[in-house]
Amino acid sequence: LASLTNNSQFPGPRWGLLPSEDAVVFIDNHDTQRTSGSSILTYKDPKLYKMAVAFMLSWSYGFPRIMSSFAFQNSDTGPPHDEEQNILSVPVREDHTCGNGWVCEHRWRQIYNMVAFRNIVRGVYEVMV
Asked: According to the lineage, what is the superkingdom (predicted)?
């Protein structure tokens, strides 16, 4: 990765990508997360997932979108619900994580700290990794 960051055009149009101001970047979304046989990172591999989100948030390319999801077993799993199919509320614990089957990746300490970092350094400098 370090050798890639020496290119002032990475990522961007030179690599066949959109200009930064037109790009939305993400690690996973509600579709890719549930793709069978997919190599997409999700909350189910928390260490790698947190590292990928940290990289995304440390790089100044695009507008980042952070996933906030619920636990699922397969692509047909719907949001947490009661026996009458009413969607359960999202309780927030003292450590800021969620319960009732909600994953809430955006509330993971490592991720909300990287959001704060990105907000603080916005426009100041490129993070070299």
From this structure: Eukaryota
Q: H/E element holding 120?
A: helix 109-121
Assign 16 to helix, strand or coil. Answer: coil
pTM: 0.80
Name the β-bridge partners of 63.
Answer: 24
Distance from C-alpha of 92 to C-alpha of 100, rounded to nearest angstrom: 10
CB atoms within 10 A of CB 57: 20
Q: How many domains does the chain have?
A: 1
Residue 123 has pLDDT above 70, yes or no: yes
User: Domain range holding 54?
Assistant: 24-121
Phi-psi region of 12 (alpha: psi -120 to 50; beta: other; left: phi over 0): left
The pLDDT of 51-70, averaged and rounded, is 93
